[in-house]
Amino acid sequence: MPVYLKKILVCIFGLLFISQTALACTSFQLVASDGSRVYARTMEFQFELYSDLVIIPQNSPFVATGPHYQKGATWNSRYGVVGMNGFGKPLIIDGLNEKGMAGGILYFPGHAGYTNPENVDPKKALAPWEFMTWALQNFATVGEIKSALNDVVIINIEQADLKVVPPLHYVFHDAAGGVLVVEPIGGKLIATDNPYGVMTNSPPFDWHINNLGNYVKLNPMEPNPLKVYGQTVNPISTGAGFLGMPGDSTSPSRFVRALTYSATITPAKGANENVQMAEHILHNFDIPKGSIRTTLDKNVFMEFTQWSVISDLNNRRFYFSTYTYPSLRMLDLKEIDFSKPGLVTIPINQMQKASKLIY
Length: 359
Description:
alpha+beta
């Protein structure tokens, strides 16, 4: 077992994976005036995920985890994928494939309900952490994912190193504008089209949509002065149209805030400007170390934004930044020969000054 996993197990024994703390990942979509789209997200966790940038080529064989850790679903990747992994695994936490479909895993505590592995055909079985890789390697649109959901089953199985079943749900964005949320609830995969393009963590997606009704008065326009008993009451400052927008780091608040920003900004003219706009919005969700703390057995764990990514779906460009180096770096998928065999791993804390990574 790698040294960093031993340190994690010694410190937390997997308990943080099933806690109800924030684990505050936030994702959203922006559409430019020319129709180009970007998908962006932050990755927060309470301990290091040891992520690197990985390039997975076409025709890469994959064997998923089945019941009792035996052989599960198998496939050879149809499309090349670039994305962030975790713990040195050849898996995608968040990535972009060569057809312009992006997707991300988000934490879903208290609500994720996978299928009992004793009740599934092993040939259909996927572990929770493998579903994103399966989807990005095999499909070009969210419609294709929806059509294929009956071909796989996400089983209730512990991650072998961390000794817990990670509660996860998933979001996908394609270049044509489709956005799909997939949530494992009650042993079934619930697929829901997402016209808002925003996703965070628990509760389930339909709860977040209902919660929007509490914020219908949020408005970028400044309110008019109010007459009270013949006196004029003016807004206390600019920005009063958004007075009452939740500013805390809970999942419902971040959902409302991400939708408010993405729905009210002046659309960018094109893809490059759209990436810059997404970067500005992402900074509203940065969590510095120390602002969210969890105590466990007298140990204090601090959640923080480990990395953020932006996928330019139309130009097939994958941007990322890290906690220690917040400037964006980019990998252009059009310049990658995905027919070249072999997984490529690029440490994200190397080449700090390179705005464009050359593969």
